[in-house]
Amino acid sequence: MNLDGVLFFPVTPFAADGTVAHDVLREHVATGLAHRPGAVFAACGTGEFHALSAAEVGAVTDTVKDVVGDAVPVFTGAGGSVGQAIEGVRRAAGGGIDAALLLPPYLVSGPSAGLRDYALAVADASELPIVLYHRGTARYSADQVAELSGHPNIIGFKDGIGDIGLAQEIVLKVREAGTAGFLFFNGLLTAELSQGAYRGIGMPLYSSAAFAMAPEIATAYYRAYVAGDEEVREQLLREFYLPLVALRDQTPGFGVSLVKAGLRLQGLDVGSVRPPLTDPTPAQQDELARILERGKALV
Length: 299
Known about the structure:
This protein is of the alpha/beta class and 299 residues long. Helices cover 49% and strands 11% of the residues.
């Protein structure tokens, strides 16, 4: 699978009555698509998978696929209980979706072997390609990832933990297992901040929530990253990404809340986040507006 470009994680817009605003979603995805992302990940972390019903996940993914067509791969979010995850990947496979990001199971945690079995149960349920998401209660060992990489439907690994030593071990173990074409993603919050290190250990792909809010800035960073233009890359980190991360860290869960607020500030009414996330205060929105203005001035 070719994922050449920034990985776009669109938000899920909500109307005033709380339902998914599909017309706004279409506009949001079309705007991002014009900046040539490498893939679109619908109803995943930035898309508030945790707050969507199974029917909403399917409907959001269908809308995204309708807009994107065959331009780039479309991923859907899958996760929660093993039953919910299996239903999700089967539905996505029947709807022409290209792959799924397997998010962690919620509420309960089990032994390491149980997590492996969870991933295998979902991978066995359909032929839909799956990327493992290493985050929260889903903490895979290097040996597990190497073993799972041999499954024909498990095509990649996304790190949301941030243990760089373990991530390096995982890359090496998968390579030793001889799995060809296995994909490695940096999935940390505001991944641009850590991507220089992740590229160094063999994880060249990264998710970009910033692309959903400011695709021109995220694309400028990606171009500098690919070209090895450290002057431009570091300037964007200093003047846009570092201030954004400082603002994000003021409140738990703000990674999504700020992206939605940024879109609203730029005239796209994507609505609020669903509980348990919260919207920024007026003062935080003002600071976000200043950060966006500085970032856009650089590109």
